[in-house]
DNA sequence: TTGAAAGCGCTAACAG
DNA sequence: CTGTTAGCGCTTTCAA
């Protein structure tokens, strides 16, 4: 601790004790500057109607005391917190990094802060988090839902908390949602494999209670059906996407009778695990994954993917949120963002058996 | 909008207008339940001293009105916000995902929410963000600094905002800091290359004003010196780590007279760019990178790295923060976390010229 | 067991 | 241009 630091402590310690570690308030500043409370407020908020001289006296007092406006009090009075909440599945998932960054960027453009939390794909934890954010009176909420029943949000939305869902739709309530075209993307990806001569195509996806997982499975089935292929149950594996289960699933469908010659992976984690399995596998197997991921182009072969634009997803949702916050109450809307097939080699391999 | 939803609107609309979208307050609940304000407060906060019967009446009123406690007001009164701020460089950077997730997890264990923002490596923006968080009266702050002068934080720290720096030390103030051993890690990585027969080893790093970048450079120089090799300026490139500059730097040191036979890359972004360059390069070049990254093991050759544990960095910092928040004022501390060399092939290649 | 009153630090509304 | 007053919705204190 420097000497300067210690003097600061002594200085602030002169003020009457309160719960904020003896911080000076506008009242203290007013007393020191010899002006009224409201004048301090004017200076702090850059409102007009203060003589340069007065302003300087107030500013000096602010600097001397180390005053910083207490936004908690301000919020209480103004009713707007200038903050929005973001609830997602897992901040550590590379898919959500760009998404939350995009939301943050838009929030920043609107002078708002971002409070965020991970639901860990647990509906209860999602609700807990959302309600905690509502209790803080965030102005709005961007939610990547873990659960499928969001009726608990009804009173909040009715009370004016703008809410936009991303990546998966809300359950049981009418709300804005921004989605990638999971169905179309998966269908295109599987069709791409079929176009390259495959007939036995496997699908490894997440738990079907997750909307995107169900949609992608639907896309897979649609593509197979369009091609007149009867899918076998052995080719389809759904469940949690931890590496162990996914690796076992991949190995199972790659071996035995009538093994698959191509795999469609339902999300980035699945894709990566399948790549690991295939790296050890004796036969060449074609692969298309849903979600792009870093370095997919550097692997050999490069991994063909159905890419969705996570940043755009986040930006679109956040912009929608602030439109609602600022404007008239529009009708709720569903925004579908297109996916894009990126060919890198793995999806263009021919059947090896 | 369901019928239930509309009734909720009508219901809340009866309450006197305020700034929170006509939300019921404890006063409203008290009126409806026919009890005093304080009794509602007791029920809401689970305080003892309320008859089961009264409690039920209050609870019914709460449910009927859709009441949710306004934590802004609570905060104003209690002085603690139960939230901490995290300022990092870029939420979208894969290195920070696990770190912020770890911080969030610890916050959650302590019942606190996480407010975070990206500084975009801009000192002004860092300060702006930090002060905005202080104005919100976050209880504490975890900062990955972009700037190197943090004296602006002195009054805040004196006023009781617990602050822990991560990844890089604070400038101009005395504060806790949690670091990876950049110097030792880089020295070990370079030494590893030297041990495999290299003499001309290149170093591509970030701007030396960034503490970790400077430390890693120092580690590189120490290893070279220990081996009795005089480094040439041509082998060293420092600056912003955008792909274009890094690629040019790599190509420059790989060609011309006395080209390097091995490269040490100063962070994950640099490493990835160098991998791309080497993939196109006619000669085999050894590579060790600072920071681990996903799929490094799947590339051919696998990329040898000096790994730091981002999650542990975040967890350690956050735990330190809450120790401070809860306990006596310890002396500030510097915590160094070890790095780990992970051999995957690229760092074990012999010199090719 | 319950409630009335005071006040957290700020801003809105209205005087001077 | 400046200051005073009255809350924002909650918790604290203290009395019933």
UniProtKB/TrEMBL annotation, chains A, B:
Indicate the segments forming the HTH lacI-type domain, all copies.
24-78
The molecular function GO annotations come to: DNA-binding transcription factor activity; transcription cis-regulatory region binding
State the residue spans of region: Disordered: 1-24
Q: Does the keyword DNA-binding apply?
A: yes
Keywords attached to this Swiss-Prot or TrEMBL record, sorted alphabetically, are: DNA-binding, Transcription, Transcription regulation
Q: Extract the Pfam families matched here.
A: LacI (PF00356), Peripla_BP_3 (PF13377)
Top-rank taxon, per record? Bacteria
Q: What is this protein called?
A: LacI family transcriptional regulator
Upper taxonomic classification of the species? Bacteria, Bacillati, Actinomycetota, Actinomycetes, Kitasatosporales
């Amino acid at each position: 601790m420097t000497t300067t630091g210690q003097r600061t402590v002594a200085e602030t310690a002169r003020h009457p004790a309160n719960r904020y570690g003896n911080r000076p308030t506008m009242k203290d500043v007013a007393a020191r500057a010899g002006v009224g409370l409201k004048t301090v407020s004017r200076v702090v908020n850059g409102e007009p109607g203060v003589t340069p001289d007065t302003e300087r006296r107030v500013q000096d007092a602010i600097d001397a005391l180390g005053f910083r406006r207490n936004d908690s009090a301000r919020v209480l009075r103004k009713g707007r917190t200038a903050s929005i909440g973001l609830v997602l599945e897992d901040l550590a998932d590379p898919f959500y990094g760009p998404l939350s960054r995009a939301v943050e960027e838009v929030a920043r453009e609107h002078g708002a802060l971002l409070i965020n939390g991970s639901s860990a794909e647990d509906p209860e934890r999602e609700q807990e988090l959302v309600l905690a954010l509502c209790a803080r009176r965030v102005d709005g909420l961007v939610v990547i839902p873990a659960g499928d029943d969001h009726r608990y949000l009804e009173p909040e939305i009715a009370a004016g908390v703008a809410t936009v869902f991303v990546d998966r739709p809300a359950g049981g309530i009418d709300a804005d949602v921004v989605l990638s075209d999971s169905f179309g993307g998966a269908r295109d990806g599987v069709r791409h494999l079929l176009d390259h001569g495959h007939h036995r195509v496997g699908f490894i996806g997440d738990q079907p209670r997750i909307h995107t997982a169900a949609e992608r499975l639907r896309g897979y089935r649609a593509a197979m059906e369009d091609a007149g292929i009867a899918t076998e149950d052995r080719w389809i594996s759904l469940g949690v996407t931890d590496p162990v289960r996914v690796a076992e699933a991949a190995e199972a469908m790659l071996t035995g009778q009538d093994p698959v010659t191509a795999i469609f992976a339902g999300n980035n984690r699945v894709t990566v695990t399948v790549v690991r399995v295939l790296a050890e596998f004796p036969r060449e197997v074609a692969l298309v994954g849903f979600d792009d991921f870093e370095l997919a182009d550097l692997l050999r072969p490069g991994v063909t993917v159905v890419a969705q634009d996570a940043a755009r997803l986040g930006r679109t949702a956040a912009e929608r949120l602030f439109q609602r916050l600022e404007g008239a109450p529009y009708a709720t809307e569903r925004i579908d963002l297109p996916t894009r097939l990126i060919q890198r080699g793995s999806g263009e391999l021919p059947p090896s058996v």
